[in-house]
Amino acid sequence: MRFRTLQDAYEGMRYELRMNGDEIVAKSSKGDSKAIELLNQSITIDDVCQINIYNPKRKFNVRYALLEFMWYLSMDPKVRNIGKAASIWKDIADIDGVVHSNYGVCLHNGWNRVVNELVRFPESRRAVIALNQPDVDYGMKDVPCTMFVQFFVRDDKLHLIWNMRSSDFAFGFCNDVAVGMLFLQMMRNELMERTDIPWIGLGSFTYNATSFHCYDNHWSLIFDDYHNEVFDKYELVEEFTWGHVLQDMLYLPSRDIELEQMWEMVDTFEQENFVGGGL
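Request: output the structure for the sequence above.
Response:
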């Protein structure tokens, strides 16, 4: 299915779950529950600068999405800070407060290889980064839901395919797509910096989910009607690359900090790193 924005995708998939989903017994980090599930879903979003969801029942916090992005950029698997903003991270961490699902760790490991591959061969089908290693016994509640991501340059635009083994509609889908579209923008900046080819445009973001589901405690989200016509634009400035992030320390620090200070960092990050400044 194809949508213009993340908001449109949220509304469209809400409808699909309501009309075509099957009820299943599901296991999650919090135990057994019921869920409504769709199998083998492919969701494409064309405007990758629209990362917000405006449906008031969802109560999506775009500031939290930016905070999670900053945590990924830190490549810190410990949840001491991010867990203050979202308790789920503490729930799935091991006894040392560590998770495997800081996607920045794996993305950074493969980042320069992908950049080099696309610079040498823009038509490449090898620009892949694996995030979940199926043969690894993770030994904890946290098993990465994202299997791998793949970048493509087609028709002078950069596209990103984000492949999931499992996707929770209420939380995982919304935050993963918002953050994923920021990584797409960031990769485009890398290619523009390395190739001096300013014509590489922003393409689409495709989210493939083998199991796309909504747990029973969030079923109320799929049974309401909402339409939105006002959107904010979140487009990273062109100099925002991983090298720039590390040089200017534009990531969530590893040291223990208070939640209020983290929100202040997010506000500064938003002001300084997006086209047009304050949004």
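The radius of gyration is 18 Å.
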